[in-house]
C-alpha cells in the first residue's frame, strides 16, 4: 500500500508533514464517531426496550459495540504515537494494529453475535403479541441516520482528501491504508448506515405484513453485515502485524532518497515495511563514498542512518555494507528484488 510520502525528505527543519496532519485528523475522526455512537447506543436501547423490536435490539448492540470499539481506537492512536525508545527501536506503531484488532474482534463478538442470536431466537421462538410502537423505531432510526451520517462524513472527508493526494480511488485507499483507525471508523460508520436502512426496511415490512418474522430477519441481516466487516478489519490488522510491505512507488522513493545522500555511492539491497500507521522500517545495503578505516566507516553508517531517519515517516533505518559482487539497484530498474 502506498499511503506515505517521504517529503520533506532529509530536511530536519521542514514544516510538519502530511502524515502528522493525518494523525490529527484520525484522532478527530475517532472522537466524532465515539460521541455519535454513545448517544445512539442509549437511544436505540431505550427504543428496543419500549417497542420489543429484535431489529432495533440488534442496532442497539451494534452501537454499543461501536462505542466500545472507538474507545479501543483512541487507545490505539495514543499507544501508537509513543516515541521509540531503547526497548522499542522501531517505535510503538504496531500497538495501533493490536488495539485495532481488539476493536474489530469486539465488533464481531458483541455486535454480530448478539444480532444473530437475537434474530435467530425470535425467528425460531413462539410469536408473541404484536404491540410494537412503530413510530418510536422510525424516530430513533432517523436520528441515528443523522448522527451516523455526521460521523461518516468526517471519515469520508479524511479518506477522500488523502486518497486524492496519492491518486487512488477512496475505497481502494481506505481498504489498503496503513492507518488502521481511519479504516475502522470508515467501515464501521458505513456499515452502521447500511444497517439502519436494513432495520428500517425490516420494521416497515413488519408493519405492512403484521409478521414479526421480518423484524427477526432484519436482526440477522445486521449480524451478518457486522460479521463480514469485522472479519475484514481483523484480517487487515493481522497482515500489518505480520509485516506488511510497501508498494513499488514507496520503495522507489526510499531508494531515491538513499541514493541522493551525498555519502552513499550505491545500494544493492533495500527492504521497506510498515511498522505503524504511515511509519516505515528501512534496511539497505550500501557502499559509502571514500575508503575509510572500519572504525570510521561504522560512525559514518550511523550518521547516514540518522539522516535518513529525519524523514517524518521513517521510524528506523539500518544500513549494512554492500557486498562488492552484488548488482547495484537503480530507481529505474525497480527495487523488488530480495536478497537470498
Which key terms come to mind for this protein?
340 residues, mainly alpha, Alpha-lytic protease prodomain-like, Alpha-Beta Plaits, 2 domains, three-stranded mixed β-sheet
Give your account of this protein's structure:
- The structure is a single chain.
- The protein has 340 residues and is mostly helical.
- The protein has helices at 18-51, 54-80, 94-124, 134-166, 170-176, 180-209, 213-243, 248-260, 294-308, and strands at 264-276, 279-288, 314-321.
- Helix 9 links the parallel strand 2 and strand 3 (314-321).
- Helix 1 (18-51) packs parallel to helix 6, helix 4 (134-166) packs antiparallel against helix 6 (180-209) and helix 6 (180-209) runs antiparallel to helix 7.
Give the helices and strands, then pairings.
Blueprint: H1 18-51, H2 54-80, H3 94-124, H4 134-166, H5 170-176, H6 180-209, H7 213-243, H8 248-260, E1 264-276, E2 279-288, H9 294-308, E3 314-321
Parallel strand pairs: 2-3
Antiparallel strand pairs: 1-2
Helix pairs in contact: 1-2, 1-4, 1-6, 2-3, 2-6, 2-7, 3-7, 4-5, 4-6, 6-7
Amino acid at each position: 500500500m502506498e499511503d506515505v510520502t517521504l517529503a520533506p525528505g532529509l530536511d530536519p527543519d521542514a514544516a510538519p508533514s502530511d502524515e502528522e496532519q493525518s494523525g490529527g485528523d484520525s484522532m478527530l475522526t475517532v472522537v466524532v464517531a465515539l460521541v455519535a455512537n454513545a448517544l445512539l447506543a442509549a437511544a436505540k436501547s431505550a427504543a428496543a426496550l419500549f417497542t420489543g423490536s429484535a431489529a432495533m435490539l440488534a442496532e442497539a448492540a451494534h452501537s454499543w459495540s461501536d462505542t466500545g470499539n472507538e474507545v479501543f481506537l483512541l487507545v490505539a492512536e495514543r499507544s501508537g504515537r509513543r516515541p521509540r525508545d531503547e526497548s522499542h527501536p522501531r517505535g510503538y506503531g504496531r500497538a495501533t494494529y493490536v488495539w485495532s484488532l481488539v476493536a474489530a474482534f469486539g465488533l464481531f463478538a458483541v455486535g454480530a453475535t448478539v444480532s444473530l442470536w437475537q434474530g435467530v431466537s425470535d425467528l425460531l421462538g413462539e410469536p408473541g403479541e404484536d404491540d410494537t410502537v412503530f413510530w418510536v423505531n422510525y424516530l430513533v432510526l432517523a436520528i441515528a441516520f443523522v448522527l451516523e451520517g455526521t460521523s461518516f462524513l468526517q471519515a469520508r472527508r479524511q479518506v477522500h482528501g488523502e486518497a486524492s493526494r496519492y491518486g487512488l480511488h477512496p475505497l481502494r485507499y481506505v481498504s489498503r491504508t496503513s492507518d488502521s483507525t481511519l479504516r475502522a471508523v470508515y467501515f464501521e460508520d458505513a456499515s452502521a448506515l447500511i444497517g439502519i436502512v436494513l432495520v428500517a426496511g425490516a420494521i416497515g415490512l413488519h408493519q405492512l405484513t403484521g409478521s414479526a418474522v421480518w423484524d427477526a430477519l432484519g436482526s440477522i441481516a445486521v449480524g451478518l453485515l457486522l460479521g463480514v466487516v469485522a472479519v475484514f478489519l481483523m484480517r487487515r490488522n493481522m497482515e500489518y502485524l505480520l509485516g506488511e510491505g510497501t508498494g513499488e512507488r514507496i520503495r522507489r522513493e526510499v531508494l531515491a532518497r538513499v541514493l541522493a545522500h551525498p555519502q552513499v555511492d550505491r545500494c544493492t539491497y533495500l527492504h521497506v515495511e510498515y511498522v505503524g500507521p504511515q511509519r516505515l522500517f528501512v534496511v539497505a545495503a550500501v557502499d559509502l563514498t571514500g575508503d575509510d578505516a572500519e572504525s570510521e566507516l561504522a560512525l559514518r553508517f550511523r550518521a547516514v542512518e540518522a539522516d535518513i531517519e529525519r524523514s517524518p515517516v521513517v521510524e528506523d533505518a539500518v544500513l549494512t555494507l554492500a557486498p562488492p559482487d552484488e548488482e547495484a539497484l537503480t530507481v529505474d530498474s525497480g527495487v523488488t528484488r530480495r536478497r537470498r
